[in-house]
């Protein structure tokens, strides 16, 4: 049995890890907490450490980082991103920042609670990098501003102060150059490929089209030209074959006709034979049907579940903390302590009869009312149980107060 931990932050860490796995739609995802910078790898996620104090900033930062990573894992496809990724460094930064903003915006639309958490992460990042003190657009990163603008336009939420400052410094230039392209943002938000093409168009509008590289949609060969070439080849081949047939001897053509007629007769016979075999198949048992699914309830197999979408299974060990269970056991032991040793004062025959009935001689029957955070409340003793081999009852003076 593992020793229960005394760190008050451990239940929060466990709950956040399970929520992150669910949001990312990856039950096998590994979630760790470290003092190192947050990151996401193929092995799992590394979230900011949460100390024993569990300050508000620590909790919000951990939740925002976890939500951002989970949404990226759920709505981002590496193959599609690599296909449309630009070749130049600045264009690639803009491309990646806008894709991250797209994933977060899609998640915020479906799960509004993630928007508040991610705002806390953005505010922490902006404060750490000093975005609030920047006064010139040349000192602010254009890629970050483009990502902030996409998130603002897609969700309609106001950004934290530092992030809003960076976005406002570049917003006039971006909307002047690529405003018409950004008007179709909502239509392409849910489709990563369509959004990637929109992002490349925005990058070209901003004047960095030379960093895009080759258009991935133009790399595929034109199927129409190949089809036309293939259509021309059979005609020429047919003309050559027709000229050869005209030059052939009449005997050769007659032999070919006989061979064709014989082949046709043999194919008809084979078809009749196959059809006859199918007709002569004995009527056997029907193929076995797949086994019926297991019943939802072992107690009542006829129980019908109309919807399992919102079902949730929770183990008994997760209903209360180990420390709370230990306190509850100690409380129950304390309540039953006065009842120990009562059998010594009763006759031997009474002890034997009570042992056979599996009831402690002279014990009380205790009933419980309800379970509270401090343990069971509302316990009271009932009437003393009459011993089967003795007509006398336990004296009332022996009943604990």
Describe the structure.
With 401 residues, the chain is mainly alpha-helical. The chain has a domain at 76-217. It has helices at residues 10-24, 56-75, 78-84, 89-110, 112-129, 142-155, 161-182, 185-188, 192-205, 223-247, 250-280, 322-336, 348-356, and strands at residues 30-34, 39-40, 44-48, 366-367, 370-372, 375-377, 380-381. The strands form three sheets. It has a three-stranded mixed β-sheet, with helices on one face. It has a two-stranded antiparallel sheet with strand order 4-7. A hairpin with a 2-residue loop joins strand 5 and strand 6 (375-377). Helix 2 packs across helix 4 and helix 2 packs across helix 5.
User: Which percent range describes the beta-strand content?
Assistant: 5-15%
Give the assembly state of these chains: single chain
- Helical content (DSSP H or I, runs of 4+): 40-55%
From the alpha-carbon coordinates, what is the Rg to the nearest angstrom?
A: 39 Å
Strand order of the largest sheet: 1-3-2
Query: Topology as H/E string?
Result: HEEEHHHHHHHHHHHHEEEE
Number of strand segments: 7
Summing up helix and strand content along with how strands pair, one would put the structural category as: mainly alpha
Overall geometric form = globular
Mean pLDDT: 75
Major β-sheet profile: 3 strands, mixed
Low-confidence blocks of residues: 223-231, 234-254, 263-267, 269-282, 343-366, 387-394, 396-401
The number of helical elements comes to: 13
Whole-Å distance between the termini? 36 Å
């Amino acid at each position: 049995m593992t020793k229960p931990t005394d760190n008050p932050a451990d239940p929060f860490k466990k709950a956040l890890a399970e929520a992150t796995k669910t949001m990312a739609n990856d039950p096998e995802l590994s979630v760790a907490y470290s003092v190192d910078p947050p990151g996401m790898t193929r092995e799992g996620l590394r979230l900011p450490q949460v100390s024993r104090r569990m300050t508000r900033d620590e909790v919000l930062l951990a939740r925002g980082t976890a939500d951002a990573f989970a949404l990226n894992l759920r709505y981002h496809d590496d193959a599609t991103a690599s296909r449309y990724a630009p070749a130049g460094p600045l264009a690639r930064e803009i491309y990646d920042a806008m894709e991250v903003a797209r994933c977060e915006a899609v998640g915020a639309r479906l799960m509004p609670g993630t928007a508040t958490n991610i705002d806390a992460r953005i505010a922490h990042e902006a404060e750490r990098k000093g975005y609030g003190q920047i006064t010139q657009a040349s000192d602010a990163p254009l890629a970050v501003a483009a990502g902030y603008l996409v998130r603002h336009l897609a969700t309609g939420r106001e950004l934290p102060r530092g992030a809003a400052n960076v976005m406002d410094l570049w917003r006039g230039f971006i909307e002047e150059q690529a405003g018409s392209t950004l008007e179709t943002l909502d239509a392409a938000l849910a489709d990563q490929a369509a959004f990637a093409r929109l992002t490349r168009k925005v990058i070209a509008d901003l004047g960095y089209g030379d960093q895009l590289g080759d258009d991935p949609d133009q790399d595929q060969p034109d199927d129409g030209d190949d089809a036309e070439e293939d259509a021309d080849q059979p005609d020429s081949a047919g003309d050559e074959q027709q000229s050869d047939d005209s030059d052939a001897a009449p005997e050769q053509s007659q032999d070919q006709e006989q061979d064709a007629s014989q082949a046709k007769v043999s194919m008809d016979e084979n078809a009749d034979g196959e059809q006859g075999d199918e007709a002569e198949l004995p009527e056997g048992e029907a193929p076995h049907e797949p086994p019926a699914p297991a019943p939802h309830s072992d107690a009542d197999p006829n129980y019908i579940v109309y919807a399992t979408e919102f079902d949730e299974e929770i183990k008994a060990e997760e209903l209360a903390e180990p420390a709370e269970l230990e306190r509850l056991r100690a409380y129950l032991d304390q309540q039953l302590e006065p009842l120990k040793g009562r059998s010594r004062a009763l006759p031997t025959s009474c002890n034997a009869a009570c042992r056979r009935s599996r009831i402690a001689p002279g014990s009380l029957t205790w009933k419980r009312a309800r379970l509270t955070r401090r343990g069971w409340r509302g316990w009271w003793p009932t009437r003393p149980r009459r011993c089967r081999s003795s007509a006398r009852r336990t004296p009332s003076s022996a009943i604990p107060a």
